[in-house]
Amino acid sequence: MHLVLTSLGNGNFESVPATLGTDPVVFTRQHAGLFKITVATLNGNSVISTNSLESPPYAYVFGLPSASNKYLAYSSPFSTDTAGKFSLSLKSDSILAARKLVIFALARDSRGIVLASNPQDTGVSDSTTLQSTLDSIAPVAVGSSVTATLHLKSNSTKFTEIITINLYIQGAGKQAEQTAISIEPGASQDVTMSFKAPSTVGQYALSISSPQYNGGPLATQTLQVTILQSNLQILIPAAIGVVTAIIILGLYLVKRQPETKDIEEKTKPAGSKPKTPPSGKPRSKSLTRSQHHC
User: Fold this and answer.
1) CA–CA separation, 205 vs 219, rounded Å?
2) What's 20's DSSP letter?
3) At 175, is the secondary structure helix, strand, or coil?
4) Tens digit of pLDDT for each residue in 169-193?
5) 3-class SS at 226?
6) How many other β-carbons are positioned within 10 Å of the β-carbon of residue 46?
7) What is the full DSSP assignment across 101-164?
8) The pLDDT of residue 81
9) Strands 145-154 and 140-141: what pairing?
10) What is the mean pLDDT of the chain?
11) In sequence order, what are the residues at sequence separation of 6 or more whose Cβ sits closer than 8 angstroms to the Cβ of residue 49?
């Protein structure tokens, strides 16, 4: 095996042989732990600096299919009592977001033989995922106060999940935070956060996440920021529509009046004379009788 060292400053590299030696980790031995690599910078025989890097925790257990998956947490070494019993605690923020969480123990007896508990026998298996939904946020005015409501539901049956919730706005960073949110096994929890809308009109990506929940977003949404609030924007076009309708109706009535007069004049009969009102005294008629002499 050759180890290649490359300078980040000028790109020069050097290849040196390296021997594996005796590997303390063999496939026939159950074990758990982590790897630690230390790099030392030398100037001649003088050590200038050292840098160390630790691997994530790992475990190798016979017949455990989850051994190739991600290990979320591990405890420090501990001793059991004379009956082999023990008690310890782990922070819940290290075991969240696991679809199938399995807890097992590796032990070494007085003779140095490594023993492992069977997860199927211990019954310590659970899910620590969360179901999350975010209420829709209507368009908001620039600089106005906005409220976001996140609904969380625990899928766990054994563990109480305690998390921190952060709200981020694109280009503005973290805008709100709530800590120590406790969710009982199988329970639901609503989280309400208030923040100020950006001072510029536009669309912004809103995301809610938890540092204990893999750092990934629990919910996302597009926030629409406008000059006026949405209800005012609806009222103003409605008011403009009412005024426009009144103006159109007024113009129609004004235009219709001359047409009405013309229609009335055209409907009068030709040659008709107005009736003269009767005088104060009625007319008298005289009858004259003529006589003829034979």
Assistant:
1) 11
2) -
3) strand
4) 999 999 999 999 999 999 999 999 9
5) strand
6) 7
7) EE---EEE-TT--EEE--HHHH--EE---EEEEE-----EETT-EEEEEEEEEE--SS--EEEE
8) 84
9) unpaired
10) 75
11) 40, 41
Homologous superfamily of 130-230: Immunoglobulins (2.60.40.10)
Q: Is 185 in contact with 149 (CB distance < 8 Å)? A: no
For residue 252, what are its two tokens?
Answer: 């129609």
Q: Where in the chain is the domain with CATH 2.60.40.10?
A: 130-230
Contact status, residue 132 vs residue 151, Cβ threshold 8 Å = yes
pLDDT of residue 257 exceeding 90: no
Contact 196/144 with Cβ under 8 angstroms?
yes
208 residue type, one letter: I
In residues, how long is the chain? Answer: 294
The CB density around residue 173, as the number of other CB atoms within 10 Å, is: 8
Burial of 167 (0-12, 13-18, 19+ CB in 10 A): buried
13 token code pair = 């590299």
Q: Which residues contact 228 (CB under 8 A, 6 or more apart)?
A: 141, 236
pLDDT grade for 4, boundaries at 50, 70 and 90: confident
Task: Indicate the residue type of 102.
Answer: V
Tell me the backbone φ, ψ of residue 112, rounded to 5 degrees: 90, 10
Tell me how far apart the alpha carbons of residues 35 and 53 are, in angstroms, rounded to a whole number: 8
* Block residue for tokens 């290649």: 4
pLDDT in tens, 47-75: 888 888 777 666 666 666 554 556 677 77
- Determine the pLDDT at residue 23: 60
Asked if residues 185 and 208 have their Cβ atoms less than 8 Å apart, the reply is: no
pLDDT of residue 63: 61
57 residue type, one letter:
P
